[in-house]
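for the writeup, i need someone to sanity check this before i put it in the appendix. the sequnce is what the collaborator sent (i think, or maybe the updated version? ugh). structure was predicted straight from it, no edits. if anything looks off just tell me and ill rerun, i have time this weekend
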Amino acid sequence: MYERILLPYDGSEGAGEMLHHASEVAHWFDATIQLLYVADTTRDSVTVVEGDTIDMLEQKGETVVSDAAQTLNTLGVTYDTDVVQGNPAATIVEYAKRYDQDLIMMPTHAREGLSRYLIGSVSEKVVRLSSIPVLTIRVQSDEPIIFPYENILVPTDGSTAAMHAAKHVFSAAASLDATVHVISVADTAGFSPHVRSTTSGRDTKQAASDAVETAISEAETRGVIDTVRHVTQGTPVREILDYIESNNIHAVGMGTTGRRGTDRILLGSVAEKVVRSAPVPVMTVADSTEHGD
């Protein structure tokens, strides 16, 4: 399913843990890791030595990927390395598309010391911009990453974009022989208690239930054997995070747009908040029509 995995990498301690997890994923799918160091051209990294202009970040990148290559050799994974210059988020997204990468893996919350282009806003920019699936991982030494993922949570709002993402995640889940948990949240958080109990509230919950059933049917079509349904009401991000904690979820897979399409009102903002907050890996899949694919 994944033949080429792009791993932006800076060689710091937290990124090393990402390297090991990427190797696990690559072994499972028999994929090649493309290790990428981006020399951030938005930083003042150029100096002159004996009349020659030398980009010190690029030199550092060569050292970093060389050290990582030794680790990958030890782990027995197939890999390539590259060092490029550019604006980090845009460069990562463009590189992935230009070289036909199937998956981008990036850390989100990481230990102090990770380069700024690998954490926080840049990872979120990659999630927003990429037409290629992005697997973001919160790297924490006290929370080991479980792989292969045994329980995968798929949030859905019943939109075309959500189903597009779900199909991709279901195929990955089938390859992993994982149990898929499908959740839909009737977002009534902005309604008064009276409205929640009226026909409008019931219709919202029925739509959520229908979305789950449609997704479950698609999961079974794609070879997922074990499924779990969950329909609830509340604030989507809070309900998703609570479900992760309460049900031993090992990974989440979701779309980056919802019913409002490129307005990114529903699953867009929800996806980014889940990426930022989830204690487990989160795969985000963009709607192909949003990126013109």
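The CA atoms of residues 20 and 61 lie 19 Å apart. The two ends are 19 Å apart (CA to CA).
thx in advance!!
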